[in-house]
Structures are given as C-alpha cells and as structure tokens.
Amino acid sequence: MTPRPAHQGSARALGRPLAVDLCCGLGGWAEGLLAEGYDVIGFDIERHQYGEHRYPAQLVLQDVLTLHGSQFKDAALIVASPPCQFFSYCAMPWSRAKALAAEVRADPERLAKELALFRACFRIQHEASEAAGRHIPMVVENVKGAQPWVGRARWNFGSFYLWGDIPAPMPLMALAIKVPSIKLSEIGFNVAAARRTDLGKGARFTSRDCGYERTAEDKRQHIGVRRKAASAMIAKIPLPLSRHIGAAYAR
After folding, report:
1. Which residue positions in the chain have pLDDT lower than 50?
2. Are 173 and 190 part of one and the same domain?
3. Which residue range is the domain that position 214 belongs to?
4. Same domain for 172 and 88?
5. How far apart are CA 206 and CA 8, in angstroms?
6. Residue 75 to residue 78: CA distance in whole angstroms
7. Residues 68 and 128 both lie in one domain
C-alpha cells in the first residue's frame, strides 16, 4: 500500500485547497498555485535545485508511477507536467527522429513505456476521484509534439499544451514559449561553489572559476548539471498560466 503523506488533511484544516503537483520539476505549477492560496505537494523522482532555484513547496521524492490516487482524495486540483523529451525529439524533421518514432510505434511494450507517465496521471486522477466520491479536476501540460501520441490537446498557452479539465475562458498568450529565464553562467557559478567539497582527483584550487581548476571529468559533470538546470527552467509553467488554472479551481 502506498504510504499516505503525513501532511494530508492539513490544507483542509487550515481552510486552504490542496493541489497535487505530479512530475513537478522546478515548480512552475506550484508557484502559481501557492500565489492563489493553495497548499501544494509535489512529486518527482529527483530534487531539482540549481543555486537559488528550487521547488517552492513540499516535495516528495517518489516515482509517480508508484502513486495511487486514493491518497489524494482531499485534493481540489491535480496538475502534472510529464517529461516531454521523447515527444519533442520525435517531432523533429530529422531522419533519426522519424526512425525512432517508427520503432516505438512498432513495439507495443516500448510504446507503453514511453507513454507510462502521461497515462499514470489520468489513472491517478481517476483513483482520486473515485476515492473522494466526486470529480477532482486535473490539468496536464506537455508539448505540441505529444499530440500524435496521446491525442489532441484541449488548449495551448503558446508552446505549453494542455490536456484534461481546461476551464473557460482561458488566457490568450500566443507568444509564451519554453525559454530559459536564468543565466547559465549564474547556474555554473552556484553549482561549482556547491561542488568545491567534492572535486575529484587532480582538481587544483586557483583564483578562477569559484576557486578551483576543473579536471576533464569535472568539466563534463559541470556541463551536465548546467544542461539539466537549463532544461528544468525551460519546462517551467508560466506564472500567468498556473495562476489562472489555480484561480479557476480554488474553493
């Protein structure tokens, strides 16, 4: 049996609606929902923390595939942003991308694996609604390239495409696109400073680059972290969108 979050019920006791944030990343959904007065709990398989950028609400490190929706019967809203890398890559006009898409479609087991998180979100909503005896609304965000795989989106906010219970009216923001909102040089500085206690064999302290000179291996790890940070920031839900959804379902 999936453990019940220790805080569950606290939001209702304090008069605040509870929002469940699946595949929460850096918390684009959470920022808007918190601003609208929700108590938010996020679920992800890893903690995204890059310098001062981190998830702004309570975070549970757990695979969304292992969750059972019955533990969210008190929720007023469920939001989700499953990973979009596969959908984005397969939408590219490259021969390798087209070949990958064809391979996945021809392999039912692999197709199920690629769609597992997206489908799990709707399973969790169904289980939560069944346990609550009422419909619990859910909004799932992904990219345009997901549509050939999971069906047509009900709305899009620029390049942020939405499935599920989309309230009306929705804000028009045709130019909202997934772009980084922080400087990678700042991410690099903070990550490097955090890594100074574990530099690896051969690292030499200097007056440059946060006080040490990186080895080749350390440089590779550093670049990897910067790329993850950029990807996490690109995927963040715009604040106007998350606030609009939150306001529509607050009660």
Report:
1. 1-11, 13, 179-212
2. no
3. 184-228
4. yes
5. 49
6. 7
7. yes
Q: Is residue 208 part of a domain?
A: yes
Let me know if residue 32 belongs to a domain: yes
* Whether residues 143 and 243 fall in one domain: yes
Given this model, what pLDDT does residue 14 score? 64
Instruction: Please give the Cα distance from 54 to 191 (Å, whole number).
Output: 13
Check residue 24 and give its pLDDT: 95
Rounded-to-integer distance, Cα 88 and Cα 64, Å: 21
Sheet holding 77-80, edge to edge: 58-61, 39-44, 18-22, 77-80, 138-142, 160-164, 155-157
Sign, CA dihedral 103-105-110-115, equals positive
Q: What is the pTM of this model?
A: 0.77
Distance CA 79, CA 24 (A): 9
pLDDT of the residue at 222: 54
62 and 156 fall within a common domain: yes
Residue among 242, 235, 144, 224 nearest 181 (CA): 235
Q: What angle do CA 42, 15, 36 make, to 5 degrees?
A: 55
DSSP-based helix, strand, coil % in the chain, nearest 5: 45, 15, 40
pLDDT of residue 84: 93
Instruction: Let me know whether 76 and 150 are in one domain.
Output: yes
